[in-house]
Amino acid sequence: MPALRMATKVPPQLGCDVGQASPQELNVHSNPMNAGTTEQAGYPVSPLTQTHRETASPRPSRQTHPLGRYDRLARVLHWVFAVSIIYATVVGYTAGHITHTTWRLFLQHLNMSVATVLIVLFPLRLVWRLKRREPPPLPDMSTPQRTLAHAVHGLLYFTIAWVLVSGYLMVPQSYRFFGLLTIPTPFTRGPLTDELFLVHRVGCAVLGALVVVHVLAVVKHQWIARVPVLSRML
User: Fold this and answer.
1) Which of 101, 146, 160, 219 has the fewest CB atoms within 10 Å, i.e. is most exposed?
2) Which residue ranges form the domains of the chain, and what is each CATH number?
Protein backbone atom coordinates (compact mmCIF):
# COMPACT_ATOMS: atom_id res chain seq x y z
CA MET A 1 0.00 0.00 0.00
CA PRO A 2 1.22 3.38 -0.75
CA ALA A 3 2.27 5.21 2.32
CA LEU A 4 -0.26 7.63 3.60
CA ARG A 5 1.05 11.11 3.84
CA MET A 6 -0.08 12.79 7.04
CA ALA A 7 -0.98 16.37 6.34
CA THR A 8 -0.37 18.59 9.30
CA LYS A 9 -2.39 21.75 9.45
CA VAL A 10 -0.26 24.57 10.72
CA PRO A 11 -2.18 27.42 12.40
CA PRO A 12 -1.49 30.86 11.05
CA GLN A 13 1.20 32.84 12.83
CA LEU A 14 -0.06 35.72 14.92
CA GLY A 15 3.34 37.34 15.27
CA CYS A 16 3.62 36.87 19.02
CA ASP A 17 5.84 33.80 19.20
CA VAL A 18 8.96 34.00 21.32
CA GLY A 19 11.93 35.11 19.21
CA GLN A 20 9.81 36.34 16.30
CA ALA A 21 8.25 39.80 15.98
CA SER A 22 5.43 40.83 13.75
CA PRO A 23 6.00 43.40 10.98
CA GLN A 24 4.10 45.97 13.02
CA GLU A 25 6.42 45.47 16.02
CA LEU A 26 9.46 45.69 13.79
CA ASN A 27 8.19 48.96 12.42
CA VAL A 28 7.68 50.31 15.95
CA HIS A 29 11.14 49.18 17.04
CA SER A 30 12.81 50.84 14.08
CA ASN A 31 10.85 54.05 14.48
CA PRO A 32 9.41 54.76 17.97
CA MET A 33 7.44 57.66 16.55
CA ASN A 34 5.08 55.12 14.96
CA ALA A 35 4.06 53.78 18.38
CA GLY A 36 0.99 55.96 18.59
CA THR A 37 -0.17 54.84 15.13
CA THR A 38 0.33 51.20 16.10
CA GLU A 39 -1.80 51.60 19.22
CA GLN A 40 -4.57 53.29 17.27
CA ALA A 41 -4.57 50.44 14.77
CA GLY A 42 -5.10 47.93 17.59
CA TYR A 43 -1.70 46.28 17.51
CA PRO A 44 0.07 45.44 20.76
CA VAL A 45 2.81 47.77 21.92
CA SER A 46 6.25 46.25 22.19
CA PRO A 47 7.93 46.30 25.63
CA LEU A 48 10.91 48.00 24.00
CA THR A 49 8.67 50.83 22.84
CA GLN A 50 7.15 51.20 26.31
CA THR A 51 10.63 51.33 27.87
CA HIS A 52 11.67 53.97 25.35
CA ARG A 53 8.71 56.11 26.31
CA GLU A 54 9.39 55.84 30.03
CA THR A 55 13.11 56.62 29.79
CA ALA A 56 12.90 59.37 27.17
CA SER A 57 13.61 62.78 28.69
CA PRO A 58 12.49 66.13 27.27
CA ARG A 59 15.00 68.35 25.59
CA PRO A 60 16.61 70.88 27.94
CA SER A 61 15.42 74.42 27.52
CA ARG A 62 17.86 76.96 26.14
CA GLN A 63 16.59 79.58 28.57
CA THR A 64 17.87 78.31 31.90
CA HIS A 65 17.56 81.56 33.85
CA PRO A 66 14.00 82.17 35.13
CA LEU A 67 14.08 85.89 34.30
CA GLY A 68 16.46 85.80 31.36
CA ARG A 69 19.95 87.29 31.33
CA TYR A 70 21.57 90.08 29.42
CA ASP A 71 24.10 88.93 26.86
CA ARG A 72 27.79 88.70 27.74
CA LEU A 73 28.85 91.93 26.00
CA ALA A 74 26.06 93.92 27.67
CA ARG A 75 27.05 92.57 31.10
CA VAL A 76 30.75 93.34 30.60
CA LEU A 77 30.06 96.89 29.40
CA HIS A 78 27.61 97.49 32.24
CA TRP A 79 30.12 96.60 34.95
CA VAL A 80 33.01 98.44 33.27
CA PHE A 81 30.93 101.62 33.23
CA ALA A 82 29.49 101.05 36.70
CA VAL A 83 32.87 100.58 38.40
CA SER A 84 34.49 103.39 36.41
CA ILE A 85 31.70 105.89 37.12
CA ILE A 86 31.72 105.15 40.85
CA TYR A 87 35.50 105.45 40.97
CA ALA A 88 35.58 108.68 38.92
CA THR A 89 32.83 110.22 41.06
CA VAL A 90 34.64 109.46 44.30
CA VAL A 91 38.01 110.66 43.00
CA GLY A 92 36.51 113.73 41.35
CA TYR A 93 34.93 114.98 44.56
CA THR A 94 37.86 114.10 46.82
CA ALA A 95 40.90 115.01 44.70
CA GLY A 96 40.37 118.72 45.32
CA HIS A 97 40.76 118.15 49.05
CA ILE A 98 44.13 116.39 48.72
CA THR A 99 46.91 118.81 49.68
CA HIS A 100 49.76 116.69 48.35
CA THR A 101 50.32 118.03 44.83
CA THR A 102 51.88 114.88 43.38
CA TRP A 103 49.09 112.61 44.60
CA ARG A 104 46.40 115.07 43.49
CA LEU A 105 47.81 115.34 39.95
CA PHE A 106 48.25 111.56 39.77
CA LEU A 107 44.62 110.93 40.71
CA GLN A 108 43.36 113.61 38.34
CA HIS A 109 45.28 112.20 35.38
CA LEU A 110 44.18 108.69 36.30
CA ASN A 111 40.61 109.92 36.46
CA MET A 112 40.90 111.48 32.99
CA SER A 113 42.51 108.31 31.62
CA VAL A 114 39.64 106.16 32.89
CA ALA A 115 37.17 108.63 31.38
CA THR A 116 39.00 108.36 28.05
CA VAL A 117 38.43 104.61 28.04
CA LEU A 118 34.72 105.22 28.63
CA ILE A 119 34.63 107.76 25.79
CA VAL A 120 35.92 105.08 23.43
CA LEU A 121 33.52 102.41 24.73
CA PHE A 122 30.42 104.60 24.95
CA PRO A 123 29.49 104.48 21.21
CA LEU A 124 29.84 100.70 21.30
CA ARG A 125 27.58 100.44 24.33
CA LEU A 126 24.99 102.77 22.81
CA VAL A 127 24.88 100.90 19.49
CA TRP A 128 24.75 97.53 21.24
CA ARG A 129 21.89 98.67 23.46
CA LEU A 130 19.86 99.60 20.38
CA LYS A 131 20.71 96.34 18.60
CA ARG A 132 20.70 93.63 21.26
CA ARG A 133 17.67 91.64 22.35
CA GLU A 134 16.20 92.69 25.67
CA PRO A 135 15.42 90.01 28.27
CA PRO A 136 11.76 89.63 29.26
CA PRO A 137 10.38 92.31 31.60
CA LEU A 138 10.26 91.73 35.33
CA PRO A 139 7.05 90.09 36.53
CA ASP A 140 6.51 92.51 39.42
CA MET A 141 6.58 95.66 37.25
CA SER A 142 3.49 97.36 35.90
CA THR A 143 3.38 99.11 32.54
CA PRO A 144 3.91 102.61 34.04
CA GLN A 145 6.88 101.29 36.03
CA ARG A 146 8.43 99.82 32.89
CA THR A 147 7.97 103.12 31.08
CA LEU A 148 9.61 104.97 33.97
CA ALA A 149 12.51 102.49 34.03
CA HIS A 150 13.14 102.96 30.30
CA ALA A 151 13.05 106.73 30.77
CA VAL A 152 15.59 106.58 33.60
CA HIS A 153 17.88 104.34 31.54
CA GLY A 154 17.68 106.74 28.61
CA LEU A 155 18.46 109.65 30.92
CA LEU A 156 21.42 107.71 32.31
CA TYR A 157 22.88 107.31 28.82
CA PHE A 158 22.36 110.99 28.05
CA THR A 159 23.97 112.08 31.32
CA ILE A 160 26.96 109.77 30.84
CA ALA A 161 27.57 111.35 27.44
CA TRP A 162 27.15 114.82 28.99
CA VAL A 163 29.73 114.10 31.69
CA LEU A 164 32.26 112.47 29.35
CA VAL A 165 32.14 115.21 26.71
CA SER A 166 32.25 118.11 29.18
CA GLY A 167 35.00 116.40 31.17
CA TYR A 168 37.20 116.14 28.09
CA LEU A 169 36.53 119.69 26.90
CA MET A 170 37.17 121.32 30.28
CA VAL A 171 40.76 120.01 30.52
CA PRO A 172 43.12 122.78 29.34
CA GLN A 173 45.68 121.99 26.64
CA SER A 174 46.35 118.24 27.17
CA TYR A 175 46.73 115.37 29.63
CA ARG A 176 48.65 112.12 29.87
CA PHE A 177 46.77 108.89 29.14
CA PHE A 178 47.94 106.43 31.83
CA GLY A 179 51.37 108.05 31.50
CA LEU A 180 51.84 106.49 28.06
CA LEU A 181 50.86 109.19 25.57
CA THR A 182 49.60 112.75 25.46
CA ILE A 183 45.95 113.40 24.63
CA PRO A 184 45.43 116.93 23.23
CA THR A 185 42.39 119.00 24.18
CA PRO A 186 40.94 121.89 22.13
CA PHE A 187 41.01 124.76 24.65
CA THR A 188 43.57 126.55 26.80
CA ARG A 189 42.86 127.58 30.35
CA GLY A 190 40.42 130.49 30.51
CA PRO A 191 36.78 131.51 31.08
CA LEU A 192 35.51 128.86 28.66
CA THR A 193 37.19 125.97 30.47
CA ASP A 194 35.89 127.37 33.77
CA GLU A 195 32.33 127.33 32.43
CA LEU A 196 32.81 123.82 31.07
CA PHE A 197 34.04 122.78 34.50
CA LEU A 198 30.77 123.98 36.05
CA VAL A 199 28.77 122.18 33.37
CA HIS A 200 30.76 119.03 34.13
CA ARG A 201 30.16 119.32 37.88
CA VAL A 202 26.40 119.69 37.36
CA GLY A 203 26.43 116.66 35.07
CA CYS A 204 28.30 114.63 37.68
CA ALA A 205 25.72 115.56 40.33
CA VAL A 206 22.84 114.53 38.05
CA LEU A 207 24.62 111.30 37.15
CA GLY A 208 25.24 110.52 40.81
CA ALA A 209 21.55 111.02 41.61
CA LEU A 210 20.50 108.74 38.75
CA VAL A 211 22.93 106.06 39.89
CA VAL A 212 21.42 106.21 43.39
CA VAL A 213 17.91 105.82 41.92
CA HIS A 214 19.12 102.88 39.84
CA VAL A 215 20.68 101.17 42.86
CA LEU A 216 17.55 101.73 44.96
CA ALA A 217 15.45 100.14 42.21
CA VAL A 218 17.71 97.09 42.25
CA VAL A 219 17.42 96.86 46.05
CA LYS A 220 13.63 97.11 45.81
CA HIS A 221 13.36 94.27 43.27
CA GLN A 222 16.10 92.04 44.71
CA TRP A 223 15.47 92.18 48.46
CA ILE A 224 11.95 93.59 48.93
CA ALA A 225 10.00 92.06 46.04
CA ARG A 226 12.27 88.96 46.12
CA VAL A 227 12.84 89.03 42.36
CA PRO A 228 16.44 87.98 41.52
CA VAL A 229 16.99 90.88 39.15
CA LEU A 230 20.68 91.25 40.03
CA SER A 231 21.51 87.85 38.60
CA ARG A 232 20.47 89.06 35.15
CA MET A 233 23.64 91.19 35.07
CA LEU A 234 25.98 88.61 36.63
Assistant:
1) 101
2) 72-134+141-233 (1.20.950.20)
Contact 25, 15 (CB under 8 A): yes
Which distant-in-sequence residues (6+ apart) come within 8 Å of 216 by Cβ? none
Structural contact between residues 81 and 160, judged by C-beta atoms closer than 8 angstroms? yes
E strand segments, the chain: 174-177, 181-184
Q: Average of pLDDT values for 118-142?
A: 91
Q: How far is CA 4 from CA 9, 10, 11, 52, in A?
A: 15, 18, 22, 53
Nearest to 64 by CA among 221, 227, 232: 232
The model's pLDDT over 76-94, given as tens digits with 9 standing for 90+, comes to 999 999 999 999 999 988 8
174, β-bridge pairs: 184
Distance from the first to the final alpha carbon of the chain = 99
Tens digit of each residue's pLDDT (9 = 90 or more) over 150-192: 999 999 999 999 999 999 999 998 999 999 999 999 999 999 9
